[in-house]
Here is the input.
Amino acid sequence: MANSTLTNELVFSKLKEKFGESLGEQQEPFGLLTVEVTSNEIHSVIEWLKNEPALNVNYLTLIGGIHYPENEGKELCVVYHLHSLIHNFRIRLKSFLPIENPTIATITDLYDGADWQERETFDFYGIIFEGHPNLVRILNEDSMNYFPMRKEYQLEDATREDKDDRFFGRD
Amino acid sequence: MGKVNFDAKVETINGQGFQLTTLDKAIGAARSNSLWPLPFATSCCGIEFMATMGSNYDLARFGMERMSFSPRQADLLIVAGTISKKLAPILKQVYEQMAEPKWVLSVGACASSGGVFDTYSVLQGIDRVIPVDVYVPGCPPRPEQIIDGIMNIHEMIKNESLRRRNSDEYKKMLQTYNIESDGK
Here is the structure.
């Protein structure tokens, strides 16, 4: 990354040294260090990244969810984009969860900005962030009884009767 | 005896010193030429509606100088734009707060049918929660089309019976939307 004193190799070797067994696959798409972390360890990894003086990953860019229906036992994924404003270094962490029990520790104690983002991820994917102060829907209507970004639900409004699927290329 | 002609679009018989018409038509003319619209604008149709209100198209020509942003004083609810399902109860509440007689103009594809937003989060037409009098097609409709819709509303108002809002049919129609009538 331009003008950064940290390199992907350096950060990954530090992470590997500290959390060897908890780390999974590592990639660098578009030069962005992407590391898979087990869901039990995600909180301590992020906490360490934030507090380690050499790294100082002090800014949470975003939290998002993904649903991979074919990925058995690892259907849901939580993605964290983190940014060290001090060292101008970005890192992405991924954590996979089984769809039967999609629970992961909240990071609202580390970043206040995680509050609404975790609520949004819960709203759309049903991922439960344990320890979150107010884990309720944020964007969808409160009466909604499913998680609309999970792929078993159709995107279209299910109550429409006047649209003939044949004319919309989805029969 | 005078002859039948149209004064301010009201069918009347004029003679020296008198003018005869029916109360329905006099009140209809008064109502239609002094509507207070409530613009419920959420997206690009709202921008077109603003142009319709503005000096080029000028709704004031039709007695609609004042937009009412309080539903209590409004006669015509103009819904212009996409209504999400989360917004639907609020739209319904605004409609319920309006006093009778009231009319609804649905402007554009989204308000009328959901438009291109055939998705789980968007209400597929406002007629799923409130009764609509006139639909204006278009994505978004040009100001001329919105004015045409308003002219149709005017036509409806002029020809509406004074008893309509008290009729069983009207109450039944409101009940299909789970809206209580004023109980007059």
